[in-house]
Amino acid sequence: MLVSDRWKLLALLTLLFLPGPGKKPTQQDPIAASSGQGTVLNFPRLSFETDRLTGLALVNPSVEDSLVRIVAYGENGAELASAMVEIPRGAQFSGLVHCGPLDPKPDSCLFDLTLETPAWLQVTTATDDITGFFLFLDSGLTRLSGAQAAKADKTIVFDEIRLDSGVGTELNIVNSSHVETNVVLDLLDRGESISTRMLPDLEPNGVRRLDVTQFFGVTEVSAGASVRAAADSPAVIAGFEFVRFPPGDLAGRNATSVTGGLSELYFPQMAVLGGIESELGIQNYSDHPVILEMTAFRPDGSPFSTDAPPGPTSKQDDRSCADLGGATYLWLFQCNRRHLDRGRRSPDV
Q1: Best exposed site among 37, 70, 107, 227 by fewest CB in 10 Å?
Q2: Helix H segments across the chain?
């Protein structure tokens, strides 16, 4: 596939998956990476390996033109490369962060680097409301995943840890503040801590890439496992994880800020037809158990009936209290001890 074709794909995915505006930094907001007005966007995983590409899309929805600084940081926090990009009001920048040694070097590629160690990307601008996302891909598009900019906080949670049947999980943790910090990582399985490790001396703007099995020395966890990472105050950290499925599929998602919990969640797509399944993971960040009520809706907005008999895709075992009848379910975490306790992540649906 030509670089121009991948560029078109990146622009298309921008329209499909573009998140909301970037966070406006303030002194009082722990999610902010700096003080003052403007936007800071953190992308915790950057790849410079051979045949591994990172795409970046930024949009300026404001009423003024924006001058954006894009910086790549290395494992120890050193600045590897930087670029200035001007984005007119209402316009978009999209392109590859680097093209790699196997590809030509069009003007759309920001950096000409080859690096085998972890790195990450930060975007800063004086303009409010800049937003964007990144993609990880290879030249053949056999691997493709990404996420919007990651929120930084003193404590973050990687909501899905998978170690079963050849599946592995990679964690990327960045220190987006200007002070060195230790990071305590706690591996939780069904809400209970099974391993706690220290990640010491994470430099300002530094990044660490961890394999969960190697770091914690654990080879098996349940479907509800998660990792909580806490930094020393006043530092803030951000994170991104890859769940790797054989023979090479990827599922990428950002770590979640524990201060960003919501009482209502909307999942815009659901499919449980044929061989297709929908999987939800819900984490309880509060200090008390909660009961969740989940309702599926038809395209016209009306709810599916919740009294349909369980269909062939239903699950009723020691990990789940769910009854699925086709695309119909009402999920109450209130049977035996399987309600959603503090710190627990729901099993998969």
Answers
A1: 107
A2: 3-17, 212-216
Other beta carbons within 10 Å of 287: 7
| Single pTM value for the model | 0.75
The residue ranges of every structural domain in the chain are 3-148, 155-260, 261-349
- In 3D space, the residue among 146, 161, 283 whose CA is nearest the CA of residue 215 turns out to be 161
Supply 56's token pair. Answer: 């970046």
| Rounded average pLDDT over 270-280 | 73
CB–CB of 231/181 below 8 Å?
yes
Q: Report the topology of domain 3-148.
A: Hypothetical Protein Tm1070; Chain: A (2.60.290)
Where residue 275 falls (left for φ over 0; alpha for ψ -120 to 50; beta otherwise) is alpha
- The amino acid occupying position 52 is R
* pLDDT, tens digit (0-9, with 9 covering 90-100), for 47-61: 877 677 888 999 999
Class of domain 155-260: mainly beta
Distance CA 181, CA 190 (A): 28
- Which amino acid makes up residue 275? G
pLDDT at 23 over 60: no
What φ, ψ does residue 331 adopt, rounded to 5°?
-110, 115
DSSP letters, 190-259, are: TTEEEEEEEEEEE-TT-EEEEEHHHHHT-----TT-EEEEEEPTT--EEEEEEEEETTTEEEEEEPEEGG
- Nearest 5°: the CA angle 219, 290, 293 is 100
3-state secondary structure of 85: strand
